[in-house]
Amino acid sequence: MAIFKRMSLKQGNTTRTNAAELSLRASIYPLCLVTILFFLWGFSYGLLDTLNKHFQVSLGINRARSAGLQAAYFGAYPLASLGHANWILRHYGFKPVFIWGLCLYGVGALVAWPCILHRSFGGFCAAIFIIGNGLGSLETAANPYITICGPPRYAELRINISQAFNGVGTVIAPVLGSYVFFKNTESGANASLTNVQWVYLAIAVFVFSLAIVFYLSPIPEITDADMAFQAEETHAGTDNVSFSKQYRLFHAAFAQFCYTGPQVAIAGYFINYVTETRPNTSASLAAQFLAGAQGAFAMGRFTGVGIMKFVKPRWVFLFYLTGCIVFISPAITQRGNTGMAMLYITLFFESICFPTIVALGMRGLGKYSKRGSGVIVGGVCGGAIVPPILGAVADMHNSTAIAMSVPLGFFIVAWTYPLCVNFVDYYRIPADRLGEATIGVKNSGHDEEGVRGEPEKVGMEHAESGVAMREVGKM
């Protein structure tokens, strides 16, 4: 009974702990455990992109209707991030949300089995909606957890490293699809759909097992009081005004909406684009090309992390999103290998945008961090809106290439956020102050075990950090 008491899922949210001041060493285990979740939804997302084309072939549905998969998947995100998952996060903590999300994911995967068996596209969309609720719950907790678990100055690096494993998942899924879903299609649609059901059964077994691991693992719980402490110590807090006036947060959520929609749409219709514009390209070969494009996406994240060690994340973010706009444009008019290469480069530059919006949008939220994370993750519902629009435009013009003008328009609107973060003081100063914070790093008042240092030393460092922050404000 003592063991289960120590593993209680009920956590307070107003008590200060040392979780906000964890050193890098103390945060390694929980970060590694949570990073597995990023791989999971990367794999699920990549699987969805492949199934989009697979259902068009197997069930004879058009491009606009196949976008129902993305609509069901990403349409569930606001329900989770602004509803049930965010309520659990604020009242119970991160760990219960991780377990809740994994259980929903497992249930959705089990529901998918009979739907696939009976060739029910509507039923499978319902299963994907349940899976989307599970993954939306995981993202609601995992993104802010990675951002705030450990030294604040490395938040963007941590979340981009974890999200890089999301990219690895998106690479593996299309490869699996090319060899499993599109293999031996001459044997009939039923045979190929049977292969899909076994994949989802394996997913269910794995995520239920992972839920047990999370329950048994002692991971630090980070409270609102801890986040308020971080914001106060770095003088980056904006939680002295009401939540409804956190305008930077709402702009970040809007940017997330406008960015995520194009990312999902481009990947979801990549196979259509390649089979239409590149002569003699089968769906199976196009799925392998998609795996290569997702490889470029993963490489972009690792590259972005490397650059962020030397350049402020806000500048890297501006450069990468600008690259998305520059390279998606020629994909509209170019064909063959040239057009496909433009999409490869676009996916490379998409890589760091989502996690960096999360990290920058949460800067300085303090006690509103958990609520704010739900709002930003809710912006992912753009993935439910943009793909159907792209599919409808593609059906209208009988060209997926022309329809790539849809994500271009949304990218341009999302571009307003990195411009503000870099050139408007109201956005820039809170981001830079936390980026310069010494909490959790060597000689910051805590040793490597996270134990509080000498008061005199802490006070001296706070004074020095105050000078540094005033200098930042003058930039």
UniProtKB/TrEMBL annotation:
Keywords of this entry: Cell membrane, Membrane, Transmembrane, Transmembrane helix
Give the main location.
Answer: membrane
Region Disordered: list its residue ranges. Answer: 444-463
Localization:
Cell inner membrane
How this chain sits in the membrane, per its record, is:
Multi-pass membrane protein
Superkingdom, natural source: Eukaryota
- Identify the GO cellular component terms for this protein: plasma membrane
Keyword Membrane present in the record's keywords: the answer is: yes
Q: Name one GO molecular function term.
A: transmembrane transporter activity
Does the keyword field hold Cell membrane? yes
Report what the protein is called: Major facilitator superfamily (MFS) profile domain-containing protein
